[in-house]
Design goal:
64% helix; 8% strand; two-stranded antiparallel sheet; zinc; mainly alpha; 5 strands; 9 helices
């Protein structure tokens, strides 16, 4: 049986160096939190960011993109590449002026229906996306969603959260190790890591995915793409997806939940779409 009073007495008898170590660890935790900042996402959600500078994040994105191009196969299909580039350009023209230029696009020969965007204005699209994105509006749904992650500072938020989680686990492990020994510290790191992954990081990622849907659907409507096509795209995704993990243990909302939300927002965005078309935003990409 665990005797709490005995354990407290044991800790109290620790030497001064151990107590100093615990104090320094607590101070390090405080400094880590203070180094970060809060901001507001495009949907009004409070975000904790700032573990890295914007320049560092952009450099990380550029390096990751270059690595992806080295390890992946770049498509030589000029028509498909031009098609993707056209959709990207039509969407980025709707961003604030300072964010419009300099987006690099790569089309990868990969059968998985996927795409990504990175800090540093990098966009990658797999050729497998054409199996589910059957027209330009559906392709715009995918690309706008990925751009949404970038302009909503999701990479900054995720890096900050992961840095904080890893530092927090190290601090907790060190404290436990000082009090109860190395075996206890190892157990804390092992089970704590699983807890952070399942209970801290994944829920945040689901929130980001849902937010990127909101931001992306707004962006595509402003660019003159039909927001209702986002619903069709995810219906195709769901048909092609096969078995899905439980929503509570997934980095994405369930397809059914996602489709319901996209459908609900599409009607509200129809006036934006119609106004964009009337103002001359009529993409003719393919």
């Amino acid at each position: 049986m665990f005797d709490a009073s005995s354990q407290r007495a044991t800790i109290a008898r620790r030497p001064a160096t151990t107590r100093l170590r615990l104090g320094l660890l607590a101070a390090a935790s405080t400094v880590l939190v203070a180094a970060c900042a809060t901001t507001t996402s495009p949907t009004g959600r409070t975000q904790v960011v700032g573990a890295m500078s914007q320049e560092q994040l952009q450099q990380m994105g550029i390096q990751a993109f270059e690595q992806a191009k080295k390890t992946g196969k770049i498509s030589t299909n000029s028509n498909q590449t031009r098609y993707v580039r056209c959709v990207v350009d039509s969407l980025t023209r709707q961003l604030p002026a300072a964010q419009q230029a300099g987006w690099e696009v790569a089309l990868f020969v990969d059968e998985s229906p996927n795409a990504f965007a990175l800090p540093g204005r990098k966009i990658g699209v797999n050729t497998g996306i054409f199996k589910v994105a059957l027209n330009q509006d559906q392709l715009a749904t995918v690309v706008a969603h990925e751009i949404g992650h970038v302009i909503a500072h999701h990479h900054d938020e995720r890096v900050t959260r992961q840095v904080g989680a890893q530092a927090g686990l190290g601090i907790v492990g060190a404290i436990v190790g000082s009090a109860y020994g190395q075996n206890a510290a190892s157990a804390t790191s092992q089970f704590g890591g699983a807890a952070v992954q399942a209970g801290l990081l994944l829920p945040n990622n689901r929130t980001q995915e849902s937010e990127a849907d909101v931001v992306g659907q707004q962006l595509m409507a402003r660019a003159g793409y039909d927001p209702h096509q986002a619903v069709d795209l995810w219906q195709h995704m769901m048909s092609a997806g096969g078995n899905q993990p439980p929503e509570w243990l997934s980095t994405h909302p369930s397809p059914g939940t996602r489709i319901q939300e996209l459908e609900r927002r599409a009607d509200g965005l129809t006036p934006t779409y119609q106004q964009a078309r009337a103002s001359g935003s009529t993409p003719q990409c393919g």
